[in-house]
Amino acid sequence: MAENQALSEEATSSSNTPSPSIIHGEINPNERLCSVLLNEFNYLPWSRDISLALGGRSKLGYVNGSIETPQPSSTSYGAWHANDQLVMPWILNSMEPKLSELFSYSESSRILWESIKEMYGSQNNTARIFQLKKDLAGLRQEDQSFMQHLGSMKSMWNELDMYRPHTTDSAVLLKRADEDKVFQLLASPGAEYEDLRSHLLMTPDLPSFSCVCQAVQRRDTLRKVMRIEPKSNSEARVFTSNYKHTGEKNFTGKKADWKCTYCNMKGHLREKCWILHPELKPRFDREGRMIKEGKGTTPKAIHSANSSIGGIANFTANPIDLINEFASFLQRRGGTTEDKESTTKNPTAMLGKFASIERHKAQLVACGFTQTYGIDYKKTFAPVAKMSTIHVLLFVAVNHDWFLFQMNVKNVFLHGELEEEVYMKLPPGHPQEHETNKVCKLHKVIYGLKQSPGAWYSKLSSILEAAGFKRSHSDSSLFVRNGKNGKLIVLIYVNDLIITDDNIEEINDLKSSIHQQFALKDLGILKYFLSIEMATSSKGLFLNQRRYVLDLLDEAHMLDYKPARTPLVSKLQLDAQSEPLSNPSVYQRMVEKLIYLTITRPDVAYSVSLINQFMHSPTLIHWKTVKRILRYLKGSIGRGLLMKKHGSNHIMAYTEADWAGNALDRKSTTGFYTFVGGNLVTWKSKKQMVIA
Predict the structure, then answer these.
(1) φ and ψ at 281, to 5 degrees?
(2) pTM of the full structure
(3) Residue 691 pLDDT > 50, yes or no?
(4) Cβ(17)–Cβ(80) under 8 Å?
(5) 162 and 109 part of one domain
(6) pLDDT tens for residues 267-324?
(7) Are residues 377 and 496 in the same domain?
(8) Residue 549: inside a domain, yes or no?
């Protein structure tokens, strides 16, 4: 009777919390609330399904705030906490595993719901609308029944109506008509325009139809200038007829276990994909036989630069020669006499009629490796902040609810003042380049000089000190100014500046004063810094290097590998005899990147310190250990550091060392980690210098 009464009370009012015994006895906390898991693109339909599922279970009030949180001392707090802890695994199990790891430390279901909404609810839905319209246009019944086919269409129609609700506003209808034109235009180009298509669709505001046409035209002109592809001829038709890709075709060749991550076809890897690398595509003669190149022939990519197909010239890769050759080609193809006379003196004149130069990227760089210490430079210094300083600064900002902004200074090494006398040869392209008895005397620093970073730091530090900032004694890249409204802090990492304060007006004033001295790019709120992704929520600041880990796995060709639960095996023997690696540079480069990963992943600090001891002569066992760490990272891509707001600045440090833990030289390994206000800010694992 008590259970029936509790169930009836829950059905009549969602504000009444059910009995904890009913929760654990009849409801499975590991179930999923919807069939579609949350990813980066489907927040709106996912949130609707979750809301319907929670409403049907009388639990919607725990995420929308209609059920207030009782005081911990209240008698109803235990029942509320049990229901709230039940809703949280429901939501987490309805997300993709890589996303659920980001929110698994939320304290309540409402905080979890608001964090998900804050991260994915404000994203642009243009790309999803484009994909839905593209899928609807290409949807076919095939082997499905009519009802199944109709269900697929209605599902996409309903999702499209969520993104584009019905309206009679003429301005909105005109905007949607222009967007439909843009969608049709972007759906027509081939795979070679995929990067441009993704860039346009992921912009905050979809460009207009005319702007998209100009962007596609510029890309098409760039492709024609940089690489002229042959027109469709008999050889291409023979190749296409002999090899056709189908999505469900079973590959039965010698390399059936290989799969390309770009085109999702079997039999080859990404670096051998003909779609990405068309120069690797075999050639055929008129009878359909493959043309094999001899050992003494010139490679295909170089040989094609000296040939022409169908009257269309192929150009060299040198930018200056490319412009000259392309201008001459345009003259031969139909330039008038006036054009020929004008382009004789200026080869870019003809090119300017077909394409516009957005900006010049070339810059003068000095050969700094020829400098001599004490003669043309005295000291070198790079304004690079310590990682421990960055961690502590982020904690202080989170703990005091300060604003965090990021700025980027353009051409930083051109702002410094040169103190020494430095001479340089005349650069290529100078009118007096061939006069060997003349040199240039530099009045300001340029890229390539050894004193360029130090000169830039001196210039910036002098401006900050004139504005009332004081340099930190522990880290010279940290500047602090004490004002009436609080502290204004600036952290320098070469050309990136992190500014934090609780007064937004002081931050804007500082930006304006620095902008008067240098060309700046305001990157807004701090979200991505030094390959570290930062997500802010009501709980604090979450740091991770998810994109960096994915790039590591891609470089090692391990995106399809099975994840591992631990970074090291239980019985690891790095001193065992094994074959040395033929190319140690691959091992060294991968270990160096793993070392940088430890700035947000203390769980792999010890493992990386072990493999770092064999950089000089790695073997196959050491390389397998590196792959084991990468497999562990694949299973924990979303892990990182969570800096919570505790309201305390208490410092606590822990240290430990094993005794003769290294079996090779009997040296000990020391490890320590430091907490500030309950948040981990510094850690290290290092082998001792002396024998235990």
Answers:
(1) -70, 130
(2) 0.50
(3) yes
(4) yes
(5) no
(6) 777 666 766 566 566 666 655 566 655 444 434 333 333 434 344 444 444 555 666 6
(7) yes
(8) no
